Amino acid sequence: MEEKSRSFYQDAFSRLKKSPTAIVGLIIVLIFILIAAFAPFIAPYDPFEMNLRNRQQAPSWEHPFGTDFFGRDVMSRMIFGARISLIMGITVIAVRAFIGIVLGLIAGYYGGWVETIIMRLTDAVIAFPGIILALAIMAVRGPGLFNVFFALSIVGWTTFCRLVRGEVLSVRERDYVMAARGLGASDLKIMLAHILPNIMPAIVIYATLGIAAPIISEAGLSFLGLGARSDQITWGFMISMARPYIRYAWWSITFPGLAIVVVVLGFNLLGDGLRDALDPRMKDV
Amino acid sequence: MQTYILKRLIQAIPVLFIVTIIVFSLLHFLPGCPAANILGEEATGEQIQRLREAMGLNRPIHIQYLEWVGGILQGDFGTSLRDGREVFPTLMRRLPATVQLVIASLFISTIIGIPVGVISAIRQNSLLDSFTRIFALLGVSIPNFWLGLMLILLFSYQLGWLPASGRGTLAHLIMPAIALGTASAGLITRLTRSSMLEIIRTDFIRTARSKGLMERRVIYGHALKNALLPVTTIVGLQMGYGLGGALITEAVFAYPGIGHFTYERLLARDMPVVMGNLFLFALMFILINIFTDIAYGFLDPRIRYD
Prior knowledge:
- The structure holds two protein chains of two kinds.
- Helix content of chain A is about 75%, strand content about 0%.
- Chain A is mainly alpha-helical.
- Chain A is elongated, with a radius of gyration of 22 Å.
- Chain B is mainly α.
- Helix content of chain B is about 80%, strand content about 0%.
- Chain B is built from twelve helices and no strands.
- Chain B has helices at about 1-30, 35-40, 45-55, 60-75, 85-120, 125-140, 145-160, 170-200, 205-210, 215-255, 260-265, 270-300.
């Protein structure tokens, strides 16, 4: 068992190394993580320093991505903006995965009316367009990044729940699960030690591909003015602030948006590569 | 078939029940009192109390819930806290513009996504296939509001070809539909490609080839018809998601749809309108999905609804 699972991951890793898309995706993601981690050392300027004499400067050697309405360096602000985008993407997907895994495990393992209730709840949550439900939660709880995190976390777990339940149903009656049950293992132990490791690859794939959604949603909510405050920097908020001047200063909108596209593309490339490597059933797709 | 449709509709009832509970709970999580919100800061306690009574907010919560649901069953979504108008007709007036936008965006994403996905699949691993895969993934990765702004920058301000905002002519619809449809186009391309690749490997395609049918006949006559089945489901789902995505797109293009309207009312905490919109969208999503499943049955004779 131990031997087999290690060889599965080794096998997967060697496949991953051969996939150019996965490597490109991984490099993009790593670069952004490094940028976010070392932002104060990389950013050429203080992201909050205003210089009214230097307003709305077009890109130049001094300011590669130009300056914004307050004369702040757009590139430096983008470098700091990577922090909130990445943290938001990763934490939201972690909470979504956690809720989905717990509910999916319970629904799939116990079945019966427990399953019926959980799955009808899932159907109901899926029926709402995520962004509108998130907006309504924001309207109730007020603006702010924490509330963005909260609203996004409790709307997107349904994919994980359905995925985990489906996978649990497919392994529930397998011999090794039966054997563990025969040996008197508790339900919790069976779910955590025997079922969860088997569905982990699928969860990892979905989580990686799923990071894109909260990053884009946070940008959208900040663009609508409901996320960051003026002492916080996010790419969506930068676009929102620069929007009135779109005709005169395209750079303050174009570059932060490109950052979103590139980081989201990175996670999607990596997720695609992981799917090819970890899920041999879909190897050629 | 009729029994199946009936069964699906009955199955939707518990889901709709949970939907109403979620929507209704939102109003009662609201910090502060809606009546005080409407009257503003100068209102006296007595005025607030009177409005609370008029709005029925002082009654037990389950009575309020039952009245709200009872109203919805009769098409009465309550009245707006801002202008006192009935919510349902107000929403219905704004809905056509959004439905038009969502259908236009789906039209664009299907006429791009399906052919490109098919070509990519039949030329698997070619240079063209690689390009297509990258562009499809790029499409999925672009935030629709930013794409909208970039389109405005290029086609309205630089070239002056298309109006940057508003609604009325076909020209007004082009950019919002592209902004909203690009992600779906990427998704449909990816799905069509993978679905097509799967079908091409099946036995019946091998049989079709080996009995000497022309390749074009095999691809478009046999394979495509089957490959499009899962695509139908995604197109249905995308219609539901499009309703949500339309909110931000409408904000970018000042497009007078239901999303833009709801967003404005959301900022004003006009909860009956927001609740009405949430319920309406969830209902539409559920109905679209039932409809998609039924359409699926017509397209795939293997599926029997017994």
